Amino acid sequence: MGNGVFVAGTDTGVGKTLVSAALVRRLVRLGCSAGVMKPVETGVSSGSPDQSDAARLMATAHVNDSLDLVSPYRFPLPLAPLSAASAERQRIDQDLIMDRYEQLAVRHHCMVVEGAGGLLVPMGQDWDLRELIVRLRLPVILVGRVGLGGINHALLTLEALEHRKIPVVALMLNEPAFPGGPIQAEQQRSTVALLRERVSVPLLGPLPYQSRADCAWPDAVDAAADSLPVRELAEMVLTMVAGRS
């Protein structure tokens, strides 16, 4: 396997970037040289490049790698990667991504690679995100939402990973929205309880909702990095990377 992890999501908007950034922040604090990569990103505004997922990950990791290495494919339209690339008359090339990843991997002790959308999102005419994960030979940290719908999405995604024999480090549950009232709280509690009974991989979280993620991103990342789920996740990643050295 490669020297790192791939952060995938059960869906879009589940908090992959927050989990990735918080994990990187924690690894850096523990003295680990962490590299980052966001191979494909859509919905990138030319007017706010520092707000992109790739830019946020780079700032968190304090790396001086070039943006073209970290994020070789950046598209303006907020569409699925295949559609966003087609709109720009481009094609996402796995070999190019692999080349950029290998250049980054030799510079850092541990790589944190963040996916785009869900696991089966089309990246090319005949391949999806799973194909890239298999080629990178990275185990997956799966980020899922805690609450209504989270059980089905998590179990289906774990089944898809198992089908391709992709190892899973952990399932990290996240609160991407304010939990609200008692009904939402009960939905979250039951989601955690039922998933804990049904999954064979380590289950972490839920990572508490970060209200400052939109207006004060660095503060939200710091708070998440200090949370118990991310501390546990970082220790798991460090142990895994050390075992491969």
Automatic annotation (TrEMBL):
- Statement: the UniProt record of this protein carries the keyword DNA repair: no
User: What's the main place this protein lives?
Assistant: cytoplasm
Q: Where is the active site?
A: 38
Instruction: Tell me which residues bind substrate.
Output: 42
Keywords, A to Z, come to: ATP-binding, Biotin biosynthesis, Cytoplasm, Ligase, Magnesium, Metal-binding, Nucleotide-binding
CC cofactor = Mg(2+)
Q: Which InterPro entries match?
A: DTB_synth_BioD, P-loop_NTPase
Q: What is the annotated localization of this protein?
A: Cytoplasm
Pfam families with a match to the protein in the record: AAA_26 (PF13500)
Q: Which GO terms describe its molecular function?
A: dethiobiotin synthase activity
Q: What class of enzyme is it?
A: ligase
| Sites where the protein binds Mg(2+) | 17, 53, 114
**Is Metal-binding one of the keywords?**
yes
Reaction equation(s) it catalyzes: (7R,8S)-7,8-diammoniononanoate + CO2 + ATP = (4R,5S)-dethiobiotin + ADP + phosphate + 3 H(+)
The protein's Enzyme Commission number:
6.3.3.3
Pathway membership of this protein?
Answer: Cofactor biosynthesis; biotin biosynthesis; biotin from 7,8-diaminononanoate: step 1/2
Residues bound to ATP are 13-18, 53, 114-117, 174-175
**Which family does the record assign?**
Belongs to the dethiobiotin synthetase family.
HAMAP family according to UniProt: BioD
**Summary of subunit composition and partner proteins:** Homodimer.
What is the role of the protein in this entry? Answer: Catalyzes a mechanistically unusual reaction, the ATP-dependent insertion of CO2 between the N7 and N8 nitrogen atoms of 7,8-diaminopelargonic acid (DAPA, also called 7,8-diammoniononanoate) to form a ureido ring.
Name this protein carries in UniProt: ATP-dependent dethiobiotin synthetase BioD
* Annotated organism of origin: Nitrospira defluvii
Q: What is the lineage of its organism?
A: Bacteria, Pseudomonadati, Nitrospirota, Nitrospiria, Nitrospirales
